[in-house]
Amino acid sequence: MEELRHCATSTRNQRLAGIHALAQFIGEQAPEYIDWWAQIHLIPVKKTSQPAITYLDKPEMDALLAAPDKQTSQGRREYALLLFLYNSGARASEAAQLKIGDIDWHAQSVCITGKGNKQRLCPLWTVTIDKLRELVCERAATERVFLNRFKQPTTRSGIHDLVKRCANLACTLAPSLQGKKVGPHVIRHTTASHLLQAGVDINTIRGWLGHVSLTTTNIYAEINLETKARALAACAVGNDTEVKVHWRDQPDLMEFLHNL
Asked: What is the pTM of this model?
C-alpha cells in the first residue's frame, strides 16, 4: 500500500482495519483459522498526524456569500444553498437529501437527517427562511429543496462544485481565500468555529452539528485562536505589579491608630 501504491498512512490504516475485521469474522466462524487471525491481528496500526482543520473567518465567509449573482435565478439558488450550509452546519449529503417537508416554516427550524438516520433540529435565521421560501415556491413537501438548473435534485458532488466555484469568485473580495481549499465541509467547520466564538457552549455545538461524541466537537475548541486569546486576556498579568506596604510602614495609619 505505502511502497507500491504510495498511499498515505491514514489510507493504509483504513485498509488494515478492514482486514482486521475480516480476519476476526473468519476466526470466529472457523476455529481452525484462529492462529492465522492472531497473526493478522498483530499487524500494528501506524501513528499518523491529525490534519489541520480549515475554517473561514467572518470577512472570508461574507465574501463567499457575496459571490453568487443574486440578479439571476441560478445565483439566488446558489446563495440560498450557501446560506443554508453556513446557518445549519449541514454536510453536503445532508443538504442534498433535504426535503421541503423537513422545514418548519413557523418555528423557523429544519430537521436534518444525518449519519445513521439520526435526526437533529437546527434553528434558522429569518433571512434563511425567506430565501428557502422563495426557492421552494409551492412545490410538494416530498420534493427536494435544492435543485440544479435542470430542475433535478442537486447531488453531493454538485454542491462541492458549487462551493468551489463560488470560492474562486470570492477571492477578489477576500484574497486570503486563495490559499485555502474551500468545500462544504469547510463551511461546516466555519459554522462550528463561529458558534464557539459567539460563546455557545461546546455541547450545544455538538448537537447542532450532529456529532455522536463530544470529543469530535472539542477539536474546534483546540484550533480556535480567538477563543484562546479571550481566555488568555481574562487571566493576563499586568506590567505594573502592585507593591504591598506593611501597615507598620504607614505613618498616617499609625498616627490614626494612636489617636483612637
From this structure: 0.74
244 annotated active-site: no
Q: Is 118 a catalytic residue?
A: no
| Active-site residue, selected from the candidate residues 77, 91, 131, 206 | 91
Q: Split the chain (260 residues) into runs of 10 and give each run's mean pLDDT.
A: 87 93 93 92 86 87 96 95 96 96 96 92 96 93 95 95 96 91 94 89 89 78 64 60 64 74
Contact 99, 147 (CB under 8 A): no
Query: Residue 145 in contact with residue 100, Cβ under 8 Å?
Result: yes
Cβ–Cβ contacts within 10 Å for residue 84, how many? 25
> Would you call 115 a catalytic residue per the annotation?
yes
CATH at residue 77: 1.10.443.10
Q: Are 223 and 124 members of one domain?
A: yes
| Inter-residue contact 119 to 113 (CB < 8 Å) | yes
The boundaries of the domain holding residue 118 are: 58-228
Sheet containing strand 103-104, strands side by side: 103-104, 109-113, 119-123
Query: 110, 193, 183: which is closest to 202 by C-alpha?
Result: 193
| Of 46, 115, 133, 139, catalytic | 115
**105 plus 190 within the same structural domain:** yes
120 DSSP 8-state letter: E
Question: Do 24 and 34 meet the contact criterion of CB atoms below 8 Å apart?
Answer: no
The CA-atom distances, in angstroms, between 42 and each of 2, 32, 45, 67 are: 18, 18, 9, 52
Domain count, the chain: 2
Is 162 inside a domain boundary? Answer: yes
Whether 188 is catalytic is: yes
